[in-house]
Write a structure and sequence with these properties.
4-stranded antiparallel sheet, alpha+beta, 12 strands, single chain, disordered N terminus, elongated
């Protein structure tokens, strides 16, 4: 009986320590954030929006057909509290999709593997000879928005919100 009470007491102490140790969260404080991106007054669908804090992990979201996005930092909804710079990229679908399927999925047959190798070789040759623009998708918005350092987009993520951002891009 004494052994059982010691064991039960030890288990209670271990459980208390585990609960106490696991209740705190590590890392920067995050706050929910969302917004809308427009380009020349129209919603920008399929754009990647990144909020880059001075210190801490980047938050990212993808715009829907209405240009709306929600930010997440890794798998956690929200963005690091504090000042951020923003980058936005939006690429067009390739006009020439011949061979693009070959590099967008794992080959399932010898023919697909051959097509993959052929397209990869063509892309590598184009990039090596300075013709990257021929194989890379075209940006739907000015290139300056693709880098946080050049976009000119700066915002503040507030701990207690609201953190809704209307981002209107122009040329």
């Amino acid at each position: 009986m004494i052994l059982d009470s010691r064991l039960a007491g030890s288990l209670c102490i271990c459980l208390a320590l585990l609960v106490g140790c696991s209740s705190g969260t590590k890392g920067p404080k995050l706050a929910p954030a969302d917004g809308t991106v427009t380009y020349k007054g129209n919603p920008l669908a399929g754009a990647t929006v990144m909020f880059v804090p001075a210190k801490g992990p980047v938050a990212m979201g993808i715009t829907d057909v209405s240009g709306k996005f929600r930010l997440a930092t890794g798998t956690i909804r929200g963005a690091v509290v504090g000042p951020v710079t923003v980058s936005i990229t939006a690429m067009s679908a390739s006009e020439d999709t011949s061979g693009m399927d070959a590099i967008s999925k794992r080959p399932q047959s010898k023919e697909e593997a051959d097509a993959y190798m052929k397209k990869a070789s063509e892309m590598q040759a184009a990039m090596s000879s300075g013709r990257a623009a021929e194989v890379m998708p075209k940006s739907l918005i000015p290139e300056k928005y693709g880098k946080a350092e050049t976009s000119g987009l700066q915002f503040e993520i507030k701990a207690n919100g609201p953190n809704h951002f209307e981002i209107a891009l122009t040329d």
